């Protein structure tokens, strides 16, 4: 459990696992490899340990994913209030996964199917999911990213992010953090749509709405 807890906030090398868990290096390695055999732990493209696919399978099997149960109606409300598609993203290793969505029902829209894996190097949701990571993880993630450390500092200060054409030309988005009861960022709520409607300053249009939606989900998780 110490190893799984250590990986909850993102990928970790063996050295980082040792530091976070306080386990002896041989013990941390033996446990991580054993968990990997059972698909509770996996490796990312850099060989770091990450949470494995079996955890998601178990979560789906129980049908009791509290975050999704709370988020889905809020995403529908966010879509209806903004008129744009709304999504919920979680980080999984080097990608972010769309785990829930409420699509705009007609007209030009940005469609992100549930289950889509998107890069952590572009988009407002990626900025949110990276902004509160430790400095070493941020430094590694910024290699090749479409945003900078200064961008993430601004995100932490105002608690929302925007992007214009980062992930896909002609698409803009606004995102805000969902936090667990302990205050850790566990997901990002987004609205996205064509640049023609969201403009080059999408945060000016929808930051307040997205912040309110993220706050509503976070509050429900605390009270649940």
Automatic annotation (TrEMBL):
MF annotations from Gene Ontology: DNA binding; DNA-binding transcription factor activity
GO biological process, one term: negative regulation of DNA-templated transcription
Domain HTH iclR-type: 1-53
Top-level taxon in the UniProt lineage: Bacteria
SUPFAM superfamilies: GAF domain-like, Winged helix' DNA-binding domain
Entries under InterPro entries matching the protein: GAF-like_dom_sf, HTH_MetabolicPath_Reg, Tscrpt_reg_IclR_C, Tscrpt_reg_IclR_N, WH-like_DNA-bd_sf, WH_DNA-bd_sf
PROSITE patterns for the chain: HTH_ICLR, ICLR_ED
Kinase among keywords: no
Keywords from the named record: DNA-binding, Transcription, Transcription regulation
Domain IclR-ED: start-end pairs: 54-223
Record's signal peptide: none
Keyword DNA-binding: yes
PANTHER family: HELIX-TURN-HELIX TRANSCRIPTIONAL REGULATOR, ICLR FAMILY (PTHR30136), TRANSCRIPTIONAL REGULATORY PROTEIN (PTHR30136:SF39)
Descriptive protein name: IclR family transcriptional regulator
Organism: Thermobifida cellulosilytica TB100
Record lineage: Bacteria, Bacillati, Actinomycetota, Actinomycetes, Streptosporangiales
């Amino acid at each position: 459990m110490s190893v799984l807890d250590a990986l909850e906030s993102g990928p970790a090398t063996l050295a980082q696992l040792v530091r976070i868990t306080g386990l002896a290096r041989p013990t941390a390695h033996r446990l991580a490899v054993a968990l990997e055999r059972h698909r509770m732990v996996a490796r990312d493209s850099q060989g770091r340990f990450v949470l494995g696919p079996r955890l998601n399978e178990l979560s789906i099997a129980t049908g009791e994913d509290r975050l999704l149960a709370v988020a889905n109606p809020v995403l529908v409300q966010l879509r209806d209030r903004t008129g744009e598609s709304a999504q919920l993203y979680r980080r999984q290793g080097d990608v972010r996964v769309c785990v829930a969505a409420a699509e705009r029902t007609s007209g030009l829209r940005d469609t992100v199917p549930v289950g889509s894996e998107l890069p952590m190097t572009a988009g407002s949701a990626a900025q949110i999911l990276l902004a509160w990571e430790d400095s070493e993880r941020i430094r590694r993630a910024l290699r090749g990213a479409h945003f900078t450390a200064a961008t993430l500092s601004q995100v932490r200060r105002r608690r929302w992010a925007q992007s214009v054409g980062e992930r896909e030309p002609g698409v803009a988005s606004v995102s805000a953090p969902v936090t667990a009861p302990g205050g850790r960022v566990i997901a990002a709520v987004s609205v996205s749509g064509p640049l023609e409607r969201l403009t080059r300053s999408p945060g000016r249009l929808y930051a307040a709405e997205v912040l309110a939606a993220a706050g509503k989900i976070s509050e429900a998780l605390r009270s649940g």
